[in-house]
Amino acid sequence: MTRRASLLLISISLCLLVAVPAGQAQKKHAPGQQATGKATGIDDIALRNADLRKGEWITHGRNYSETRFSPLKQVSEVTVKDLGLAWSFDTETDRGLEATPLVVDGVMYTTGSWSIVYALDARTGKQIWKWDPQVPRRFGTKACCDVVNRGVAVYKGHVYVGTIDGRLAALDAATGKLVWSVVTVDQTKPYTITAAPRVVKGKVLIGNGGAEYGVRGYLSAYDAATGKLSWRFYTVPGDPSKPFESPEMAKAAKTWKGEWWKMGGGGTVWDSLAYDPELDLLYVGTGNGSPWNQQVRSPGGGDNLYLSSILALRPATGRLVWHYQVTPGDQWDFTATQHIILADLEIKGQKRKVLMQAPKNGFFYILDRRTGELLSAEPYVTVTWAKEIDKKTGRPVENPGVRYPAEPTQIQPGPLGGHNWQPMSFNPQTGLVYIPAQENFFVFLHDKRLDYRPGRWNTGVDFSIFTDPPTALPTGHLLAWDPVAQKERWRVQYPVMWNGGTLTTAGNLVFQGTADGRFVGYSADKGAKLWEVTIGTGVIATPMTYEIDGVQYVSIMAGWGGSFPLTGGSIGLPATPGRLLTFALNSKQSLPAVAAMEMPAVTPIEFTATKETIAKGAGLFAQNCGVCHGLAALGGGGVLPDLKLSAPSVFNKYREIIVDGARVDIGMPGFKPWLKPEDADAIRVYILSLRNELAKKK
Ligand code: CA
């Protein structure tokens, strides 16, 4: 393969039923619909029995099992054709929206970009309060995948949110006033929080992200009432010259080599958490290695515990009970932070308490959630990095050469994964899991430069080969997966990848928003398209549903943002405005219009440069800029500027912007000391060459 590998996949991200009969508890916590806005009834008993609150959605994945299955069925396969817009709410943002709203006591709690929290009347969408954490915009430079937030937790009258700059805040649910706030990370390091917190036994659980930039992952538990740190579980070992924080870290350190701690190690807990109250086990998905390339991270190999793993922790202490590593010695940005779903399934004639995950590496895993024993693992998308998962050892059987020791090597799935953070759902009536799946690949090449750049993109992978535009867009599909048989039951093909998470209901329905700007309802058993509305902006968030005063509502946050710098912009959909859309039967509000994306006139700008300088600029751009602005300068999904279209005056400021960081306040980092003024000049003439080509076409 040539160094100028052309790739289909352009962007790299990362840049995540059991209804326990409650007896007495059920009486005490009867499903209440009073719009008190106080949320004081959400305590441990309520959370354990979230499924009994049929009309509400009180925790991120609807219940501790994170099934995203609603028992509501007013909206059903028969009636869904009459679903129409009931209300919409403008989040005043042109950045990404990824939250799953919660609904408690008639109030909807959700988040927008920059970690802003909204409380809305769930019947009307009228704003009750809004809390803006005032995140300094320079923190945007640390967000691999836009300044997104996936939602809040509600507990005993408080609303909890993690902010993109690493704070955890408790707000008064009735007023939105700040009760307490703690900084959960070293803010001098490139940590971010995008996940929704979860509350287990009076502790607020929050992790963080940043493994592409060089950080050490951990999960923290804070006292819900006071914000005091209760425990912290590091997922990878630190500097062995200092005492290990836990026996788990001493054990993990034996699986690492070299001076791994200097680049952080990774293993960030940036999305998935699930809890089994009966077993009292908290399930945690951990992220990829930092840097990706193990030759750089841990030269000589090793499993590198606890990267890319599913961990079972005791929520009271944060002690590890068991672990299962889905990708030992991760080399490909294969996170296991994808959502974990708990269910009781009959496997080979035996009722088993299982845990299900479809991590990035392309295998669908079923574990015994008491012990971590692997019950089955089969590919749910095309997989080329491993032949199979050995059922005896529980380890992947890697194909030869996949660790790219020297040559560029094509791997499937790519770093965006066979499935990414967009949550899957499980319907106990059909027995199917609905996965927002995707087919994509990546060409890995060992980066020989080894120039670790604190606070910048550090993967140990050479991106400078990605200078050619893609020949086709990678595609996605909604996959209905039978977890017992480990087989596909049906699929709906989409033109592009990076579609939204899924909701499934007792009305035999599956809802999903799509990258190409639609919100669709399918029959859960057969995948027949029963309803569709054109939204006009790409959707990546996950729908949810609730019922108030006998009316079932279905809500989705719609807004593309910059979380995937290819698909939205390239298929001509605008990112803005971000909106929350809520539907109900026989509602007939019209969808607010979306202005068409305006393409500025492109005028050619003359320059002189040699072919070699332009080629050098192409390589530098791919290595340093492409992750946000789109490799081959395709643009950033309508949010991050398509640099080819900049106003002519901008091209006079490339040195100041790229090298000196003149635009750090709007999230564009400076690259001193890694790029010299003449490097900025080379990037400039590369972009100008693309601009002039575009101008010629128009
Ligand atoms: Ca990653």
Q: Could you describe the 3D structure shown?
A:
This protein is mainly β and 698 residues long. It folds into 2 domains: 108-505 and 523-529, Quinoprotein alcohol dehydrogenase-like superfamily (Methanol Dehydrogenase, Chain A, 8 Propeller), CATH 2.140.10; 611-697, Cytochrome c-like domain (Cytochrome Bc1 Complex, Chain D, domain 2, Orthogonal Bundle). The protein has 9 helices and 39 strands. The chain has a 5-stranded mixed β-sheet, with no helix packed on it. Strands 2-39-38-37 form a 4-stranded antiparallel β-sheet, with no helix packed on it. It has a 4-stranded antiparallel β-sheet with strand order 3-4-5-6, with no helix packed on it. α6 crosses α9 (677-697). The longest helix has 21 residues, at 677-697. The radius of gyration is 24 Å and the shape is globular. The protein starts with 23 loop residues before the first helix and ends with a helix. Bound molecules: calcium ion. Residues 14, 211-212, 287-288, 333, 335 line the site of calcium ion.
Key words describing this protein structure:
4-stranded antiparallel sheet, binds calcium ion, Cytochrome Bc1 Complex, Chain D, domain 2, Methanol Dehydrogenase, Chain A, mainly beta, 5-stranded mixed sheet, 698 residues, disordered N terminus
